[in-house]
Specification:
elongated, single chain, Trp Operon Repressor, Chain A, 10 strands, 3-stranded mixed beta sheet, 10 helices, Alpha/beta knot
Length: about 250
Amino acid sequence: MNIDILSVFPEMFVGPFDHSIVRRAQENALVSVSVYNLRTFSSDQKGVVDDYQFGGGPGMVMKPDPIFEGVETILKDLSQSEMAKTRVILTSPQGKMLTQGLVSELALQSHLIIICGHYEGVDERIRENLITDDISIGDYVLTGGEIAAMVITDSVVRLLPGAIGSQENLLGDSISSGLLQHPIYTRPAQFRNMKIPSVLTSGHHQNIKVWRRRKALERTLARRRDLLDIQNLSAEDRDYLESLGYNPNHRLS
């Protein structure tokens, strides 16, 4: 996969992609991550990429010409088949919420271009005529889209085949499984009079499996009940949740 990022603050990316899974994925040629300074695509000698709003209003707006020029420069040498596997993403609070399902979809592409939104927003012609995806990482306001671009990149890269040693690790992730992860423990078995649940040292794999599933259901019910409302629960799951007072037929408004 190739990931190209357009930003007015490319120096923010020095460091985050030089460690852990993203670094190893680049070293193993699983992904190539390139960051471009959007100002270099500006026709203005000073590299201006923003201007005032037509009709008045607070804040500056990102101009269309540097962004179009930047994306088109990246795309110009691609074949039709490569173009078909390219997604052009704008980071924006107006966008579709980033979920693990969307991350999995993006990980199937061979090329992502991420435009880091800034200021009051972008010229609407960018959204209407250039991007394929408008993505938000949450209902809160950031200074700019750089952190969102890092989040998108990290979440996608870790799903690339070979990026993580075991596929089982991915399947057990919170959210990926549809539920929050069950509690996990490691040595020592007793720490400051705090003992781990005895079932985990019982050697009874089926009992451990049931315990973990139930704890995942309990934690999801307590912390992210909305996930249960869309979860395809088994009859056993439903029975257990009903014993905790959960009504599977109820939907959050």
